[in-house]
Amino acid sequence: MVTCKIILRALGVHWKSLFIIVYPLLILPIFLVENTAAMRCVYVVVLMAGYWVFEVLPLAVTAMIPLVLFPTMGILDAKKTSLAYFKEANMMFVGGLIIALAIEFCSLHTRISLHAIKWIGCSYRRLNFGLITLTMLVSMWISNTAATAMMIPIIQAVLEELESQGVGSRWEPDPPDIPPEEVDPLSRRPTSVAMCFYISTAYAASIGGLGCIVGSGTNLVLKGIYESEFPHSPGVEFNKWLAANIPLMLAIMYPSWVWMQIWFMGLCRPNSADAKAINVGAEGEEITRKVLIQKLVELGPLSPHEIMVGIMFITAAMLWFFRRPGFISGWPSLLTETQVGDSTAAMIVVLLLFMFPAKMDFRYMFSEDEERRPKAASSGLITWRFVNQKMHWSLIFLMGGGFALADGIKNSGMGDLTAEKLSVIVDLPPVQILIICSLLAMVVTQFTSNAAVANILLPIIANIARKAKIHPMYLMMPVCLSCSFSYCLPVSTPPNAIAAAPCNMRSWEMIKVASVMQVIAILMLIAIFPSLGTVIWDFSEYPDWAVAKNKTKS
């Protein structure tokens, strides 16, 4: 008995190390039975999927496995594997993230948010509506994680001030038989109002990331894999992404907000305890307004730094939009016949961010007033130290690993093999294939990284589209978007974890509200994307550029 306890304790402590060693051995028969390049690639995909799902290694470290196994197992040579880690989509991600960090560096995002909330109104319901709208719009342009992390402190300050004034509460009453000093903070239960504010912000960030190609790393995974699988295609264009996914983003966000109002704040249930809890009256609204005003006072007047960063942000958006707008020739055609990508536009703005000074005190270099003369050179609109501290370096390698997987799947013939094995699905009507693939992505993404799921599924979906003679975007875009429908668990995505922690929200509480969120999201996707996408990409015919593909190894 004692020995069993010791063994179980050891397994509980060292299970990750055991998994790292045993799992690759257990799945060896995958290619030992049939030693072809395709089956060796299947082995690598299954190995990485297991490591990603159970997170026995950091996600980015698992993403480096192709650098070792692809060349040594004869799947893809080292040069091609290495190049996959810095494709154009990855450089666009780096550029977009630095632009977003510049906004964070000067606190422009906080100023915009506070002004917008003050303008919308300060009742609980209007405040929640304003916060989720702002989070959604901000998350279109910066990472979902950063958008959530930006909004949570604002929410916390407002709720704490309301609680201190006695017109609201973040926590359910503590048990009367336990002294306040002995109450475990982690055991406190949040009120419905608190849960609504926190978790709706996380959901708004995930939904907002759908609207713009730079809003989520998962979107750029699609861009990289799509353009790798179909190099002769027009690619994933910035303006077409906006046209296709902003309507979908709005169609998911606001029905979801109504559902959360019903569940948490007693909408349509006027006599419920939840509805009564949010009725703070004019006094509560005034307190909230004062909190927002105080925070704006602390920010001070709009600085030249914020103005310049705002101009740079608009410049980036314009460069992306007018690179290939469709109705006129794009700006690259005025400069060169060489292909110019979205990463070029992003890096133009990144360079300008480092070149332009944050302070305009150089104007007083020759001032007669010595006090006004600058004592040192100003930093740029963003500094490399700040970028180095805040950059999601791991996501760059995670995306790169996915692109390497996609190249390996195509080069080894695994994609064709998978499509043949899934011939039952291939013979179904296109809309049914779309539904099955999207549901699969949505379910799997609840348990592991969105980008990891996209990296695994999208190359396979590309080959299913080839086999079924369906426009690749018809299947790949919905699967990519479904990878962002990760609402069920705190571990599903970083925004969920960031929002759940401050209010002690339990997994089962999140699952209850998320189950309807999932239904709303998938129904809107199925209802809107096929028809709207047909207008944008013309799904009526199988494109010629989708037929060509690389020769495969044996």
UniProtKB/TrEMBL annotation:
Transmembrane segments annotated in the record for this chain: 15-33, 45-69, 89-108, 129-155, 197-222, 242-264, 302-322, 334-356, 391-410, 447-465, 515-537
What GO CC annotations are associated with the protein? plasma membrane
What would you give as a GO molecular function for this chain, any one?
succinate transmembrane transporter activity
The membrane-topology field of this record reads: Multi-pass membrane protein
Q: Where in or outside the cell?
A: Membrane
Record flagged with keyword Membrane: yes
**Keywords in alphabetical order:** Membrane, Transmembrane, Transmembrane helix
Q: What InterPro entries does this protein's entry cite?
A: SLC13A/DASS (IPR001898)
Q: Does the keyword Disulfide bond apply?
A: no
What domain of life does the native source organism fall in? Eukaryota
Q: Please state which protein family the record places this protein in.
A: Belongs to the SLC13A/DASS transporter (TC 2.A.47) family. NADC subfamily.
* Full protein name: Protein I'm not dead yet
User: What phylogenetic lineage does the species belong to?
Assistant: Eukaryota, Metazoa, Ecdysozoa, Arthropoda, Hexapoda
